Amino acid sequence: MKAFITTDTPVTDEVLNLIAYLPTKSLPKIVESGFFQKLTDRDFMRIGYLLAKKGYEEGGSPIGGVIIDNETRQILGKGHNTLVQENHPYNHGETSAARDAGRRDFSQTTMFTTLSPCDICTALIYSQQFNRLVVGDVTNFSGNEELLRQKGVRVDILEDPELITFFAKYMKEKPDQGLEDWKGVAAVRKAATAKGSK
Amino acid sequence: MKAFITTDTPVTDEVLNLIAYLPTKSLPKIVESGFFQKLTDRDFMRIGYLLAKKGYEEGGSPIGGVIIDNETRQILGKGHNTLVQENHPYNHGETSAARDAGRRDFSQTTMFTTLSPCDICTALIYSQQFNRLVVGDVTNFSGNEELLRQKGVRVDILEDPELITFFAKYMKEKPDQGLEDWKGVAAVRKAATAKGSK
Fold first, then answer.
1. B185 vs A104: CB contact, 8 Å cut-off?
2. Furthest CA-CA distance within chain A
3. Site from A128, A142, A147 to mutate, B interface, most B CB atoms within 10 angstroms
4. Residue of B nearest to A95 (CA)
5. pLDDT tens digits for A140-176?
6. DSSP B70-116
7. Which residues contact B98 (CB under 8 A, 6 or more apart)?
8. Which of A58, B93, B110, B188 reaches 20 to 30 Å from B145, CA-CA?
9. What is the pLDDT of residue A141?
10. Is A105 within 8 Å of chain B by CB?
11. Contact between A129 and B105 using a beta-carbon 8 Å cutoff
12. Cβ contact B119–A123 (<8 Å)
């Protein structure tokens, strides 16, 4: 059977969204390897953004992660935050993508994340010896990019204005959920108590 | 219906092992709250050890974690490393227990871990604002206990000679699996290459 997405298929949001929704293991059956070869870093970040949008539509925190092989550009793992969907206190974009990828040598791979990584994901990225990290939104939080560079990870910032606007809108809508992702329910309760005692 | 384990049930390895195997959500139906009230820190560490043994018997990495409420001493989450069982690159004892506990305020809870925490689990523990960490084996790795103290987590060492002997035996049996848990497949490959080129 021929692959549904071929090397000649134009790169559109619709195709990238299909790839975001397909199970990672199914990709080699549906998408010709040549198609991935022609995708740019910006296209993989776009897939991360579309995963984040999927998470948002499910009521979750909109942060996506995609892991690719540096040479073949094949997607090895992808996912999005599942705090709400799985009642999962620390499954962020990056941890979700790494869980999807399974036990692998990550030293020749790149992690794309839509949002600057938290401390947990930062430790994951350097412990598992990822070669490269590409971050889509560094306007909020973290500052862990410098630590990752010190640990030997190549870090590139690839800001996408649409992604940044989208995430800022979410944070305005659900500030408590955003805080919980970062610092846990404990921080949300403390903030509520501090507010109540004013 | 009466609880199967009551306040008067003696604390034996068999009972603690039953608790290790029962789904966390089922515990309030099977175990009277008074039984948990009488368990010491050493008993909860023992449950962690029994979870580690369960993991070992499944072919996995033998590291267990247990989270309890500081006041009620109820178990809120527990688990063991699932590197092998779930093909999961970073699900250690602590991350497994936190995943099991779900979205919670951890600021009045204690995490018991059989092994000194890695960088990922360390970030999890302080980010989610755990009140206290009890570590069963600090003979290997890490040294993250000091960082956790700086972050405001109370850290106690509760060494269990049987647990330490057991883990040392495993590390001798499966050194590559032990290394992979800590530093990923990349580190195992690098070590093999270095050995081969000698």
1. yes
2. 66
3. A128
4. B90
5. 766 899 999 999 999 999 998 999 999 999 999 999 9
6. TTT--EEEEEE--TTTTT-TT--HHHHHHHHH-S---TTEEEEESS-
7. A89, A90, B65, B67, B77, B106, B111, B124, B128
8. B188
9. 64
10. yes
11. no
12. yes
pLDDT tens, position by position, for chain A (198 residues)? 888 999 999 999 999 999 999 999 999 999 999 999 999 999 999 999 999 999 999 999 999 999 999 999 999 999 999 999 999 999 999 999 999 999 999 999 999 999 999 999 999 999 999 999 999 998 876 689 999 999 999 999 999 899 999 999 999 999 999 999 999 999 999 999 988 765
Q: What is the pTM of this model?
A: 0.95
Name which of A83, A122, A123 is nearest B103 (Cβ-Cβ): A83
From residue A79, give the alpha-carbon distance in Å to each of A49, A91, B185: 11, 10, 21
ipTM score for this prediction: 0.94
Q: Would the CB atoms of B107 and A180 count as touching at under 8 Å?
A: no
- Token couple for A86: 């799985």
Please give the positions of B annotated as active site: 94
**Helix/strand/coil for B142:** coil
Q: Is B64 in a helix, a strand, or coil?
A: strand
B25 touches chain A (CB under 8 A): no
Q: Is A145 a catalytic residue?
A: no
Burial class (CB in 10 A: 0-12, 13-18, 19+), B106: buried
Nearest to A75, CA basis, from A46, A52, A53, A54: A46
